[in-house]
Protein 1
Amino acid sequence: MQISEDTAMLSALKDNSLNAYQYFFMKYYKPLCIKACQMIGNMEKAKEIVQQLFIEVWKTGTYRSIEHSPGGFFYQLVCQQCREIKTNEDKETERLKTQCPPCKTGPALIPQALHSHLLVTTQ
């Protein structure tokens, strides 16, 4: 049964088992990438976010705080990370808009050649 396997792996994970961590990575990597892509609209960036998330969780030992649902734990972290990225992107877009407002003068005027007017006046 899937739930008992997750429970056993969660127990092993809390004992710093790299195999257990790999199990959860392999199980949740693709669905987490899909979720991240839905939120930010870029699959390559989504993959980077998920990979970096798993690296950080392992390095910091945050996985030790997983109580019940490893899937929910990782989904929550991915959603949080994607929201932060979107917020930062929105702030950057707004900052760029305020720095350089669009021109309000209308369409650009195209200069006309003066050559024909000069020929008329010199004759």
Protein 2
Amino acid sequence: MSRINTNVTSLIGQRVLQNNTLSLSGSLERLSTGLRINRGKDDPAGLIASEALRSEAKGINQAISNAERADQVASIAEGGLQEISGLLTELQGLVTNTANTAGLSDSEKRANQLQVDSILQTIDRVANATSFQGLRLLNGSFDYSTNSVSTNSIASFAVNGAKLNFGATRAVNALVTQSAQVGQLLLSLGNSTLQLGGTNGTFVFQISGNKGSRELSFSSGTSVANIIATINTFKDVTGVSATASGTTGIRASSVDFGRAGFVAIKVVTPSSVGGSGIYQYNATNANTANTGSAVAFSAAINGVRDAGQDLGATINGITATTQGKVARINTDFLDVQIELTTGAAQTLAAQINAFTISGGGADFQLAGNVDIGGKVSIGIGNVAVRELGRQTVSGAVESLASLAAGRKLNVVDGNIAGAQTVVSSSIAAVSQLRGRLGAFQKNTVGATIRSLGVSFENTTAAESVIRDADFATETAGLTRSQILVQSATQILQLANSQPQAVLSLLRGG
């Protein structure tokens, strides 16, 4: 072929050289960046998957940082609560010390009151000063807001955790499936006074409850009212109270509801006691004695016992764990505790609209996806003295603030027994809050950090497989492309010189 206007061989060489040059440029780019995918045209599907994994890894990494921040917040709150717990323990000692009235002078009592006042002021100061970046942690800022509380049915309640969507509320409803009961026995004496058959003997029986027991002795002619008054004298010691049942009977009941509360009566000297004996009450009607359960006093030397019954309930459709009149559920979305009034706790199938949670709580985002499933919420209540230890003392609700000088539970001339009840309740409340925070740190935050760490590793590894360059493969490709470029260049040079052979024809002519 001796045409020179079109050098087809050169065109082929140029095309091949251009392709090899592009391949070489790609290998150089991948080796210089370390990435197999540098732009969409490198691998469109791989780019989409890689960007999705990269975004997910970024979210997971930030969730780990959020969890670490949550742990720091909980640690600061725990530090404040630990100091308050120590102060409450000191307060318990002062109350007990001041109760030793015969061994203390008035000046010592007033000195103890000064310490009490100082402790109360310090507790308030710690509650207001414990903060994280200006956010107060123990003054109720992270407590839940509630409304529409059913005061006729709810004696008390606590919201420990609740997940809420932005601007949403959550209604808390309870349904009683089993009534709460106290342990109770009926002593039927058959007369308004104790009849011992004309003898000069005594009627001795031991009455026991979940707090202790006492042996009581009564002579013939003692009235039912006096026996009841004697039993009630030891109510705080035994955990058993007594009321009249008609004119000839005594109802002995445990102070506490539920299986923890019981009453047991053991007759020590059963001789010639009149009356029908000891009865239990009907399981389905707590106000009616079971006539088939009578135990004669002479046969009660081994004792008769009756235990209470815990409440059965569901809260928002979830079976609650119960004790006495208290029901609680603890789920990922709702952690609440409700104490029902006696009437509500004994009304079966009663739907109770307990209260509505309208907001509040400390929210932490512990997952890469921002949704309610990845959020964790915990309530931190107010531990100021006006809120701690709320208990009914002598018919009025008192708090830790009532131990201050001049208040009803002060240690100089106040109700010392009531003061100890309030302090004990405060210690229990602070301990429970510390326990919840500790469980949050250990089982929620700690486990989340560990699981997110594994997820971050796996997600990053998956993204690396798709996007990162394999240097062994790329260096081999680079060597191949370099050789091909050099070869194509040489061939193109030969192709371009081939038309010069036509000149020999011209010279020959």
Protein 3
Amino acid sequence: MFNSIDTIRLRGLDTLRAAAIALVLMSHYASFVSGEHTFGFLDKIGSSGVDLFFVLSGYLIGNQILAPIGRGEDFRLKTFFARRLLRTLPSYYVVLTVYLLFPHSSISGSSTPPLWQLLTFTQNFGLAYGQTFTHSWSLCIEEQFYVVLPLVVLALARWKRSVHLAWGVLGAAIVFGMAARALAYMQYGHGAFAANVYYSSFCRFDGLLPGVAIAMICNFHPAVFARLQRYANVLLVTGLGAASLVLYGLHNDLPNTFVSTTFGFSLVAVSYAVLTCAALSPGCVLNRIRIPGASKLALWSYAVYLAHKPVFMMLHPQLERLHINAGAPMTVIAVMASGIFVGWLLFQLVETPFMRLRARLYPASSAHRSPVTASTVLEHEAVGAGSNGLRSILR
């Protein structure tokens, strides 16, 4: 649809996105189908796939906002919001409708958040384990992020020396997220962990900020970004090692639950940001190897994320009724494939048509064009963006 010169498709970003959705699938399979650690340590850390999604979203959305500002161009807030809504709302509302149409089925939880919260992506406030459509909590935080980030950037663009101020605000926001988790844990303890820590916007939004930091380096510190690109494979090994250590510590509450809760989520996000930074280099090994199906899974990841859990919850009682071993390899493959297939259908029937509509109504600028079928891209102009700070775009 668009000229291929407009974008550079990076296989490494697709690999990371595919890994993120694979981790989530394994975690939810263990929780809602087999009831045991079917994938070993991978399903134990599977929830961190959401943290990887957060970092990738932080970079990709941050880059969309910061790249035009770095070039001194207008950032069109209305167009940004319209494009985001057409990207995220249609598939979400289709899945939400399924939940609402079958309130007493196996896919429903102990209770359902109020409709106004479900429609406005605010159900993560006060959400508890076991409620209906709980996996939408991460979508809520991302939607809230899409609103807040451009407004903050526009406000910072009014100030002189705004790059330094922006770094200060970003660092302070990460510290705020850690402080919010510490206070919530001290006040509520582990008993109310879900509602007050795990699903909380105040306690989890900082997971997107390391991705925004990459976008800032890319657009306003090109010399630094170029040096990082030369050490992509070192960053890859470092990120994998750091993520493994942090996830092990977080899973085992090391050195204790309070410390792991306060700092663990931020450290996981930083580790995944190192991986993302590595994947942005064409010289990274992630961009030199082809993992069969990874690009497709990355492309369908949003739809698969929305659709897989109700599919798993619907199939689970059928497996029990037929006395089928949920841990058997062929059963695992069949159920996982079913979740991915329904996500693919959602992508084909809902997401793709709205992406085409978005391309007609709100075409991307030349700096941000990406094919409707591309899930992750690197805007090539971003690498060469100037380093003279956030310029005021309110002309």
Protein 4
Amino acid sequence: MELRIQSIHFDATEKLHAFIQKKVEKLAKNNEDVIKAEFILKVVKPETVKNKETVLNVQVPGSELHAEKTCDTFEEGVDLCVDIMLRQLDKYKEKQRSK
């Protein structure tokens, strides 16, 4: 599985990259059909509470799944997006089985 992390308006730390890598492994373990995962991390201006936007796009055969959250920290946003994506992947698996 290919992983792409894009940070907009800031430089992502190694710690954040490692955190994302760990969370993506959870996605890959859950569903081997995942081709590509892309995180887009963005600091929304002006500086306010909940100004960290996290977008997760996951490519699976024949479909692309999307999750988006705005939180206080990127870690929280990544966590929530991965949870949403796990549910979407479960639904995707069920659809594939029923075909």
